[in-house]
Amino acid sequence: MKPPRVATPVQARPITASKQKAAPKPETARQRVRSEIATKTKPKRDAFLYHHRALFQPLLPENNYITKLDPNHMQPLQTHVEIEHQPAKYVVAQALYMAQH
User: Fold this and answer.
1) Contacts of 61 (CB under 8 A, 6+ apart)
2) Residue 31, CA distances (Å) to 27, 36, 38 in order
3) Cβ distance 56 to 49 under 8 Å?
4) CA distances (Å), 23 to each of 18, 30, 54, in order?
5) pTM score
6) How many C-beta atoms lie closer than 10 Å to residue 80's C-beta?
7) pLDDT tens sequence across 3-35
8) What are the structural domain ranges in the chain?
9) Cβ(47)–Cβ(72) below 8 Å
């Protein structure tokens, strides 16, 4: 009959080159876009959702993202004005498929 195995404490192994911290990666376009979304787009989205929460609340469960938004950290909602005519300095050519209708 074999004697029972006894657990031994794990000894610290030396850090190999593969586990050392790698050099920082160069910034990519994808990282810049994700950063811009986090810093610019998200606050605008949150302000819009909070401002129009009466429209969304009936459709959402009791615990939702909108109820967790802090009104003290909201940026002002950006209002948009519908334009009546094309601004003079912008010239846009209409696509052929749009001109036929």
Assistant:
1) none
2) 6, 9, 11
3) yes
4) 12, 19, 48
5) 0.53
6) 6
7) 777 666 666 666 665 666 777 777 899 999 999
8) 28-78
9) no
Q: Report d(CA 76, CA 47) in Å as an integer.
A: 7
Contact predicate 47/74, CB 8 Å = yes
Q: Give the Å distances, CA to CA, from 12 to 9, 15, 17, 29, 48.
A: 9, 9, 15, 40, 52
Residue type, 33: V
- Dist. CA 86–CA 78, nearest whole Å: 21
Q: CA nearest 43: which of 73, 66, 80?
A: 73
- Cα–Cα–Cα angle for 22, 23, 26, rounded to 5 degrees: 125
pLDDT at 14: 64
